[in-house]
Amino acid sequence: MWERSSGRVITVVAVALLVVAAVPGIGVLASTERSTPPAQMAPGPTFQQGVDTDSVRLIVGVAPNGSATWTVQYWTRLDDENTTAAFESLQEDIRANPANYSDRFASRMRSTVSAAENSTGREMNASGFAVSAETRTPPQYGVVAYTFQWDGFAAVDGDTLRVGDAIEGLFLDERTRLVVEWPAEYTTARVTPEPDERRTNAVVWRGAETSFVSGEPIIVLEPAPETSAAATATPTAAGGDGAGGDGGPSTAAPDGGPGPLPLLGLGLLVALVGGVAWRYRDRLRDGASGPAVDVDAADGSDAVGAAAGAAGAAPESEREDLLSNEERVLQFVREQGGRVKQQEIVEAFDWTEARTSQIVRDLRDDGSLEGFRLGRENVLKLPDEE
Description:
Elements: E1 17-20, E2 40-43, E3 55-62, E4 68-77, H1 81-96, H2 98-120, E5 125-136, E6 141-151, E7 155-157, E8 160-163, E9 176-181, E10 186-192, E11 197-199, E12 202-206, E13 218-223, H3 225-233, E14 252-253, E15 257-258, H4 275-285, H5 295-298, H6 302-306, H7 314-321, H8 325-335, E16 339-341, H9 342-349, H10 353-366, E17 370-374, E18 377-381
Helix pairs in contact: 1-2, 9-10
């Protein structure tokens, strides 16, 4: 993350999407000619609020019908009183007058989608525009988020989804990342260029590490073999087959927790857990020996739990299934020696970053975890760990 210069006047503000392209009317699309500079999505100076954007996340949840829910998040580190006050003022204004923000964003994106429709030859539509602002920890961030539905975003060829032509040559600056997610019943047949990060049902490109050229990005998605086999052999059971059940854009919000993608900043529901109760149960487990946490079993997979091995392991697996998310995180931290990177929790439990942040926030508020920054990483530790 880049540093704020001491004494520098902060002028970059809340945000709407500013679409910059070399050819008028092309929107986010880059020309297929290599001589044409790539398109750019970047924060635009729309409302002077004294808020400086530290990072931008473009999160795209692709559905089987080719539509996609877009989430554009602008993250600002609230590390001083002035920035915090400015963001709180912006947050209040967005809540009171959301149309003042979402209408301008919608106008730009409708033009972008129209240009993409003309370029690809697919029928497209943009709808469901919304804006929200919230604070997230750890550490303390202010997040302004825009969401909308882009129908026709991906090309559908039978059971195959082809993603990328609508944003060919998209420019990502060093503060911006692109996250593309898909339903759990799909798998990747091709991804170009090589993503900077692979998740169970998603890929991530970071502008600081990757630049798209003409014809990129490309993601080709096909039904996962086990999903296809289950659908053929036992059609009535296909809906329950599944890869965790948390990867599809209709049931999970990329970088936004459980629920549909549009909940993003608006609908992160806090799962209130009785602190005394779960901390008491946690103390009961202190000092007990046992195998490492099986993430799949903890996610409720009876099949994985049944295949754990020795007959004596079954009661332990069943007990793991009864743990709350907060308990699972604490147990994971203990098993890693009392200190982990927050990203390790994301990967271990196959959660979104926002869902993980919410759970970690609750644990920190309760005093069960402490956190600090190590370079660009959030590190979590148990209070008694030195």
